[in-house]
Amino acid sequence: MVVNHEGNEADGESAGGFSRRQYAQVIAGLGAAGLAGCPSEGGSTATPAGSDDGTVEPIEFDGEGSGPADSGTDTETATATDREPVVDTIAYAHANSPDVFDWNPWTPQDNTAGDLWMSDLHGLRNVHTTNLTYSGTTIPTPHKPDHEEIEIMTWIEGTDVEPPYDWYDHHDDRSTYWNGDAHDAVAREKHNHVEFFQAGNKFTESATFNQRAEDQWTLHQWTDKGTVSEQEPDPTASNILETYAGPVDGDPPLHPSFTEPYLEQYRDAGSRDRATSVTDELKSDRVSLDRIALAGGTDEYLAGSGPYRLKSMDDVGSERMILRLDPEHPNAGHTNVEKLAIYWAEGDRAQTLKTEGVLDVNVGDVSPGAALNREVLPDYMQEFTRWLRATGGDMWKLNWNNSHLQNLWVRRALIEAVDWNAVSMNGWGEGGAQPLAHDTFLLDAQSEAIFSEEFLDSLHTYSRGSNTETATEYMNRAGYTRQGGQWVDPSGNPAEIDLFATSTIPEHVQAAQTIRANLANWGFGVNLSTQGWSTWSNNLDPNGGLNYESSLYWHGDPYVFQYYHDVGAWWDETLVAGSPTAPDPFEAEPEDTVDTQGKPIVQQIPDEPGAFEAPDEAGKAPDLDGATEINLVETVNAIRQPGNSEAERQQLYRTCAKYYNFYVPHFPFHQYMQGSFGNVRDFDWPGSSARAFDYEHSFGIENVLVLGGIAQASYDTEFEPPEEG
């Protein structure tokens, strides 16, 4: 049994898995630099240096940022715990409210934000290497007076893989729901089976539910094996199966008392109409806080695991909710923080709580020019650590269903006209992000790990600074003319597009404002709209028809095949989007003409990397010289097949990179310098290079710090003043 994934594949990809939309919910309330993406369950340019003990050191930062010194805990004595800590509560914020909170992940609007903080950690992902570890991981804790190291319990304790179809997740048998019922593989299977049916698969002849609880604590899963007549087998490469196993992220399963009745109704449904009725009922069944609280609610106990429990509805207020430490939880024994306060806040409200020093742990770096800088924070709010995030960046997401964005030369022109260095600086501040050096659709961490320097150097490089001369040339080739300072298309229509950004992420708003200003000054109209989280995410959801033209959006995955994939989910952006013809537009089909964003599935790809020539007024699928026609879905699917040699896999990766480099369907523009900051007056933290800061659950290290028991309330209020900058 594999108990961790701290090893690397020979091709530069590490084993492990990153999943689902939950990271999106995590960032919803943060408004801090650093976002990342990933699909459903199932070497950076500046590589951090290794430390003497084999751990990975974060990238050092200078006086332009801030960072606490070791909190003085090395002078503490064992008698420190004889005193009362100065605080008993640690605070965090989520973009939610008790009026709309809903643990049900199948409702039309996603209001589950906060559920990961009320659940056991699924596993731990190393933020530098992306490798995974599970229950039993030990972490040095020099900042704790009574624990030299701690052992963190996670829901998953290990995995096994049996190529080319099967994998097994082994769960820690100490995990329980808050009411004491087993939080086991059986509960997970039932939750996932409801997910399978609500996705419309009850009467889909080619669909099979490929999961089974082999015993109470082991979940067996597999890819399609062709067990029904309409189903094609889906043998999968072992390195990819390893990423399916042991996901560190995903839906925390609802209690079987919620899922079992729906599962039985789906099984009994004798028609599509009846199955649809069950789905409608499921989607309207709100799992509110009073249905998970241990007292003062409905006594249903429908969800909740992990060390901090909602013991009573008396602990739920309009401003915040208090969760209380379960002394019986395995992670409770090494923390002295008795309560977790979840503040209900997003956007400006969340920003205010941070600048007032109310929130004790936060995602983000403290950088000059960023929204959160040294000047706006109290002295005791300081950066813990910072690193180049291997899986985090941002893109300008484009919808080819827009008539202007269908034109190859227009997309190229818009990218050239924008000053991407300024976009990054204005949104994330000085030192908050690093512009990408390579245009492969990957972040630089993956590009430089997978491709040779010769191949990367041969690709076309789009300007990072505004190059309006080249942009104008490209617009002319698109057939556009400039009239009175305004670009117009060949039909005489003004050139303009909509640009969305969610107000939940101030950095995206500031970046979008820069894009709009650059393009407006050049004569291309941009209608900027800032939207709340639910409105914005619904507009990006293909199930609702993709009601956007362009948007600021996160970008990043641990593994190359997750970029070069076909996923139609709103919470992840891959090279190919989903199917516009399938009931569930999650994956495209080779038979599709276009994906949900209007991008053709069959395209001509230049044979030579870096080839750039295209016909004037080139549309979605131009005829090219020196090119080969490929089916994009077949190409990304081939990456996932077993038996590929290293050379064959490399050729598939290069095909995807050449497609992106030529067509620029979207434009990823930078990679994050990720940080974490918080209260160093009332809490003791290890030094910035400590291994305790190396792990995350979904997005950001903050819930591992709290739910893993790393956080330590201080026994005095002394702290080192912040560095200037």
Write structural notes for this entry:
The strands form 9 sheets. Strands 13, 14, 15, 20 and 23 form a 5-stranded antiparallel β-sheet that branches. This protein has a domain at 389-671: Dipeptide-binding Protein, Domain 3 (Dipeptide-binding Protein, domain 3, Roll), CATH 3.10.105. The chain is built from 17 helices and 26 strands. Residues 2-80 have low confidence and may be disordered. It has 725 residues and is of the alpha+beta class. It starts with 21 loop residues before the first helix and ends in a 12-residue tail after the last strand. The longest helix has 18 residues, at 646-663. The chain is 23% helix and 19% strand. It is globular. Belongs to the bacterial solute-binding protein 5 family. One of its GO terms (molecular function) is peptide transmembrane transporter activity. Residues 69-80 have a biased composition (Low complexity). Residues 296-563 form the Solute-binding protein family domain.
